[in-house]
Write a structure and sequence with these properties.
0% of the residues lie in helices and 51% in strands. The chain is globular. The chain is mainly beta. A hairpin with a 2-residue loop joins β3 and β4.
């Protein structure tokens, strides 16, 4: 049985494409343009028992100086605490 689900509700397709991931595989989703990509990762952390997420921004650069930064990360379903 799948643990993670992904879908693309807004695209040029007539149907909504979906993807599934398991606790053992996780799920990685990319959305990109000519200027770069956003990657969302979901995985199950066996040590804590939580579903985790990470959202990254990446831009292509042949010289290795493109943007690669974590935009957000944490536990799925928990609100980030503010300082």
């Amino acid at each position: 049985m799948s643990h993670f689900y992904g879908s693309i509700p807004n695209s040029g397709r007539k149907t909504i494409p979906t993807a599934r991931g398991h606790k053992s595989t996780g799920l990685i989703v990319y959305a990109s343009s000519d200027n770069g990509a956003i990657e969302t990762r979901l995985w199950y952390d066996k040590e804590t028992g939580f579903d985790m997420f990470k959202v990254l921004q990446q831009t292509p650069d042949q010289q290795g100086s493109g943007v690669y930064e974590v935009l957000a990360s944490g536990v799925v379903g928990e609100k980030e605490e503010e300082d």
